[in-house]
Write a structure and sequence with these properties.
Layout lengths: L2 E2 L21 E5 L8 H11 L7 E7 L6 E7 L1 E2 L1
Antiparallel strand pairs: 1-5, 2-3, 3-4
């Protein structure tokens, strides 16, 4: 059984509303993807190799296209 992020794998969609202006926020992807071009693959390898626990999180960058507000959203991993 593997452990994956439901947002990264399209099992769920983001349902966050901007606290500043009330507009629907966009998922900009996992924060690890902003570090360097290979970091998303490295993280996936580490998660599958070390027997990740269900309490681990995938941190996504969430932003508002209207006002520019952003935050980091921890997303719980799920078993498949």
């Amino acid at each position: 059984m593997g452990i994956i992020c439901p947002l990264c794998n399209g099992l769920e969609s983001l349902r966050e509303v901007c606290p500043e202006c009330g507009f629907n926020c966009l998922d900009q992807g996992p924060v690890s993807g902003f570090a360097d071009p290979y970091s998303p693959y490295e993280e996936a390898e580490l998660l599958s190799a070390d027997g990740a626990h269900p309490d681990r999180r995938c941190i996504h960058l969430v932003s508002c296209p209207r006002c520019g507000w952003d935050c980091r959203l921890p997303v719980g991993l799920v078993g498949v």
